[in-house]
Amino acid sequence: MNWADLEEKLADTKTRMFIICNPHNPTGMVWSKMDLERMIRLANQYGVLVVADEIHGDLVIEGEDYTPTFSLDPVILSNVITLVSTSKTFNLASLQAATAIIANPLLRGRFAQAANQQGIVGPNLLAIPASIAAYENGGEWVHQLKALIKHHRQLVQQVLATDLPELSLVPGRGTYLVWLDTQAVAEDSRAPVAFLREQTGLLLTPGTEYRGNGKGFVRVNLAYPTTVIEDALARLVRGVKAYQAQK
């Protein structure tokens, strides 16, 4: 984290809200408790509302689990909204169900009023029982899912080391997504991504979709059967080599 840059942005009087993605999408970064507390204290210092998007929180693939913002010192949580959901971990996005955890009753009331004004008055018929079923009975699913994602991440690392040393995997411990550094192949990843799509049928997301300094990166989704991942990696190797050959 570039703390000086973050504070400068929070101090800007036009800044009203700070969204923390934990674990981070697309990099897979899992923020430490110390970093989260520092971010929130800075936001509080400048009167900025904090929204913590933690829908990937169940998917820390290795190492220590993530720290939920709602588990931090209550003293700093008066201006924090934490969002969690079964949508990513249990593939239940179609239920359109999520939970907002808000310690401050005044902020919770404002949130509820705003949601009501937008017509978000309650979950659909299946959302609550499905969410309860996922949280109460989905432990083995999560265990197997994390093991599979870890295996797919290892496959990516092996293929890059063996066949595509030009690309590198950005370190990350969370989510079923990986962030690849493609700057040695192209300054702007949109060109090779378009080439791969046209020549191999492989669909990747260029980092420009995430703004900032993302143009030298691509995002890869590992939440597929292993056979699909293996096929995708073969297309990636073939496509990148062909892209470099025609430059």
Describe it for me?
The chain has 247 residues and is an alpha/beta fold. The protein folds into two domains: 3-137, Aspartate Aminotransferase, domain 2, CATH 3.40.640.10; 140-245, Aspartate Aminotransferase, domain 1 (Alpha-Beta Complex). It has seven helices and eight strands; from the N terminus they run αβαβββαααββαββα. The strands form two sheets. A four-stranded mixed beta sheet has the order 1-2-3-4, with helices on one face. Strands 5-6-8-7 form a four-stranded antiparallel beta sheet, covered by helices on one side. It starts with a helix and ends with a helix. The model has no long low-confidence stretch (mean pLDDT 94).
Overview features:
Aspartate Aminotransferase, domain 2, 7 helices, alpha/beta, 2 domains
Fold topology:
Elements: H1 3-11, E1 17-21, H2 33-45, E2 49-53, E3 80-84, E4 99-101, H3 105-117, H4 127-137, H5 139-163, E5 168-169, E6 177-181, H6 190-200, E7 205-206, E8 217-221, H7 226-245
Parallel strand pairs: 1-2, 2-3
Antiparallel strand pairs: 3-4, 5-6, 6-8, 7-8
Helix pairs in contact: 5-7, 6-7
